[in-house]
Design goal:
The structure is a single chain. This protein folds into two domains: 128 residues, Aspartate Aminotransferase, domain 1, CATH 3.90.1150.10; 235 residues, Type I PLP-dependent aspartate aminotransferase-like (Major domain) (Aspartate Aminotransferase, domain 2), CATH 3.40.640.10. Helix content is 44%, strand content 16%. The chain has a seven-stranded mixed beta sheet with strand order 3-9-8-7-6-4-5, sandwiched between helices. A three-stranded mixed beta sheet has the order 1-2-11. Strand 4, helix 6 and strand 5 form a beta-alpha-beta unit. It is globular, with a radius of gyration of 21 Å. Bound molecules: pyridoxal-5'-phosphate. Pyridoxal-5'-phosphate binds next to helix 5.
């Protein structure tokens, strides 16, 4: 009989089980809302990236349904063959106006936007200077480019400068950071990075996945938040988090975006969004432009919840965003915290090594504009009970 050549995977999974790091997927039995039903249990949902509640917003749903009825369920091809629809171009125009850049290209996801852009921009003769906590999709893009990657310790500008100083002046360099770091919720030091990019002639790139719709005027992102307009060459954003639907985009000059139309591999070799997705994203941009009050609500909820956790005595790290980690330490303890919270009616995912450092395992909380004070207070009460039980506070 044939031996299963994948048998070693069972051993890998057993190792995870022994370390208390094995996870089964929680199944959402309805809409992605502030309180939702997961695995048969009604819980306050602190796990989604649906910052503004747009994933269930009637205007996005309506736009998606209308576009689907009018244009169909799928686009039928990759963009360069036959899959570029009027609505894809309209979304890119709207995003470019929103971001105040010359042009935008939309990808299937934020992941493909990062991976496709970095790998298209650079080759093996170039060099990438990257924060150690940058997102996996940036890292994959760097690897695909074959350019050597020089990693600097998190937000350590002296270390970044030292790397840059030792590089040949003529070599093409990409300096790259997350706008908001997704595990700690802190901001990339964009002004200092832009200064370095100017001084050493780097291409400056920021991945604003968690900043899109959250930071800057009308949610334009960290470039707007820090007033770095014109100083960041490559701005990546996502349409999958605060904007409530699916997709990633890259904003920059017309020349740069046209180049990506010709060279970004996910653009060239993977089918474009269904028209309904593009329509929902346009509706989301409409809401950001015309109803920025929901962003204010997000921040009011963020301040309330952060203060609540801090007052209880939890270690919430260095967050500056609606992402608030509750740091437990060991991986198994973070998973236990997450499990106990869930049993008590609060869903906050446990996150352990290798996603975060071994001794900094945590549950990550994200509040949204859709949470009521009552829901947030309920969550704080549960955190208090479980935190005391596990000796965290
Ligand atoms: C979520 C995330 C992405 C990927 O975005 P998707 O649209 O979900 O593919 C990229 N970068 C960062 C920093 C993220 O947090």
């Amino acid at each position: 009989m044939r031996q299963d050549p994948l048998a070693y995977l069972a051993t890998e999974l057993d190792n995870l089980r022994r370390q208390g790091l094995y996870r089964s997927l929680r199944i959402l039995e309805g809409k992605q809302e502030a309180t939702s039903r997961f695995d048969g249990k009604q819980v306050v949902n602190l796990s989604s990236n649906n910052y503004l509640g747009l994933a269930t917003h009637p205007r996005l749903i309506d736009a998606m349904v209308k576009a689907t009825l009018e244009f169909g369920a799928g686009s039928g091809a990759v963009r360069t063959i036959a899959g570029t629809m009027t609505i894809h171009m309209e979304l890119e125009r709207r995003l470019a106006a929103f971001k105040r850049t010359e042009a935008v290209v939309v990808f299937q996801s934020g992941f493909t936007a990062n991976a496709g852009t970095v790998s298209a921009l650079l080759n093996k003769d170039d060099v990438i200077i990257s924060d150690e906590l940058n997102h996996a999709s940036i890292i994959d893009g760097c690897r695909l480019s074959k350019a050597p990657i020089k990693v600097f310790p998190h937000k350590d500008m002296d270390a970044a400068r030292k790397i840059l100083k030792d590089l040949p002046a003529g070599q093409r360099k990409l300096l790259i950071t997350d706008g908001v770091f997704s595990m700690d919720g802190d901001l990339g030091p964009l002004p200092a990075l832009c200064d370095l990019a100017d001084e050493f002639g780097c291409i400056m790139m920021v991945d604003d996945a968690h900043a899109s719709g959250v930071f800057g005027k009308n949610g334009r992102g960290t470039v707007d938040h820090f007033n770095m307009h014109g100083r960041v060459d490559v701005q990546v954003g996502t349409l999958s988090k605060a904007l409530g639907s699916l997709g990633g985009y890259v904003a920059g000059t017309k020349t740069f975006i046209e180049f990506l139309y010709h060279r970004a591999r996910p653009f060239l070799f993977s089918t474009s969004h269904p028209p309904g997705v593009a329509a929902a994203c346009i509706a989301a941009v409409d809401i950001l432009e015309n109803e920025p009050g929901i962003i204010d609500t997000l921040w009011e909820n963020t301040r309330f919840f952060k203060k609540g956790l801090a007052d209880l005595g939890f270690n919430t790290g260095i967050s500056e965003s609606p992402i608030t980690p509750v740091i437990a330490g060991e991986g198994a303890l973070a998973m236990k915290l997450s499990d106990r919270l869930f049993q008590e009616g609060v869903f906050a995912s446990g996150i352990a090594f290798p996603t975060v450092a071994r001794d900094k395992a945590r549950v990550r909380t994200i509040v949204t504009a859709a949470h009521t004070r009552q829901e947030l207070q309920y969550a704080l009460d549960v955190f208090k009970k479980v935190g005391q039980e596990l000796g965290l506070i």
